[in-house]
Amino acid sequence: MEDLVVENLFSGNNQVQIQAATQLSKLSSKQRHRLAERGIISPLVSMLQSQDFEAIQASLLALLGLAFGSERNKTRIVKAGIMPILLSLLQCQSEELVELTIAAMLILSSCTANKLAIASSGAIQLLVEILNNNVTCLSLQARLDTIATLQNLSTCHQIIPSIASSGVIYSLLQVIHFSDKSTELTEKAMALLETIVSSSDDSIHETAAIGGAIRIIVEAVEEGSVQCKEHAVGILLNICQSCREKYRGLILREGVMPGLLQLSVDGTWRAKSMARELLLLLRDCSNYGSTSKQSKHELMEQIMQAIDADGEKVAGSTLRLVEEMITKLST
User: What are the U-box domain coordinates in residue numbering (predicted)?
Assistant: First the structure.
């Protein structure tokens, strides 16, 4: 069976190759990896240049099977020259092939050795354009895969400036704005946005300058999943730390205090820490950083004074929430 698959893939006959690629997908992981050692990646990559939908689909699925769970095969596939072909497929008219191509990029980008090659191919700009232009057209899985691919690439610090300058910040904010704040999609978008924002002051200022951006992030603090809230408060903290005088008032005006108070008690360990640090930054005083030895009770009382001083319109329910937070923090 294995010998026949190899022979058919190298045969050059379109239908025979399609059949072999389809059979390859049905083989065990050990068999597929054994065949990769025999050079079948090259004819599979060549099949992607066919004008035949079935051939492209069968080849992509076979390559996905070879890449899954094998760092060596992921590297081989990229070295075989697949990236220019994948970029071309990203621009084809078939949504199914576009989504399969994004899935292939996701798997290939998870390999450290491939990241720079993928980034230098021009993939980042195309992925951002797809996310931006098809924010409501792509399937949920495809949008998740697109963001996850960019997140994979962002783990290489050399690549982050390219991602940040691609226009992705606006695209991510659009995804977050138009999605339910508690979904995995919003969580992934917020995680990538935090990675980008924490990379440079330019990214911080670009994010804050986008109309409605701070409001969108504050809404995520209030309505997001546990992880989404953590990333959202991290973004706000980065923004405020970059220039407290410029951004403190903008953040306060979006009504962030109730969400921060809640997060300072009920969030993840990291979210609690960042929420409390942001609360200190938002206080109307000049001695930030001098209260580290003060009790939590005193800290929260000062936060309440800051709210009053800032003229926040605090409803009765919010006051009860704050009192609850102070009680919890003081135990």
Answer: 120-290
